[in-house]
Amino acid sequence: MGNEENRLGDHFVDRLLAVIDDKGSPVCVGLDPVYERLPGEYRRGNAPEDEPLRAVEDFCDEVIRIVSPVVPAVKLQSAYFERYGADGVQAYFDMAHAARDAGLIVIGDVKRNDIGPTAGAYAAAHLAGPDAPDAVTVNGYFGADGIAPFVEVARREGKGLFVLVRTSNPSAGTVQDFAGADGRKLYEHVAALVAAIGDGEGLIGRGGYSCVGAVVGATYPEEARRLREIMPHQVFLVPGYGAQGATAADCAAAFKGDGSGAIVNASRSVLYAFADRKYAHLDWRKAVEQAARDFASDIAAAVRGR
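User: That's the sequence. What structure does it adopt?
Assistant: Structure tokens below.
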């Protein structure tokens, strides 16, 4: 969708829900490209300095082509592009453009934030402009004034954001489980803040969800159920499936009873499926395609059966 269409009232979550319905499963493939892990045809010894980035771009272009008929969205992990400097940053935005041209919703996993004015600059850099993703991840631990600039750009541009609430990494609890005098844990406090911000004027779409969503890791299903109660209008971006150890049943905890309200991400288990013994009989393209189909089917079945 172009910016003009967004200004005319198109809502990020309504677009997301529509393409999820069209593809039949609420899933997202993460593009976390590591040159050393690419198929052999993209790597060669003694490569010139710019060869890895070109290989990464070509590989991601092919993955986008392969998964676009299967999944509704991709998540671009900006760090794997930024490592190549200015050319890598351009490649990140080029990949976002290519994925949108392929009909995919694009989430930029940038985890940006700072105090208000700097957050505004980050928001303009990552959500505005024709090549910007449809949504980005945001670090919510600066508080409301750090989130507000992203909300304003999202409102104006018809974009979205996913605020970190309960992350999927093993040590998350050492910070996020800290409890106040009332017994409420830090991640629950952040969830309540996200819910309040997301209920702001003009942020709720026709489907009843806000363009201000939340990152909620699949590795903590009981917490996800609690967070669903706190954030009824938030779409959850759910990492942790596959390589991080979460099952489809764990992921299903993030959804509402009607099967809506979340999108599950898988990165390494799809991107590098050709290295999995399960798909060893297939060439790398067929392995990625089959892994994407298996992932989509697994999540769809778990959400239907919860």
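The mean pLDDT is 93.
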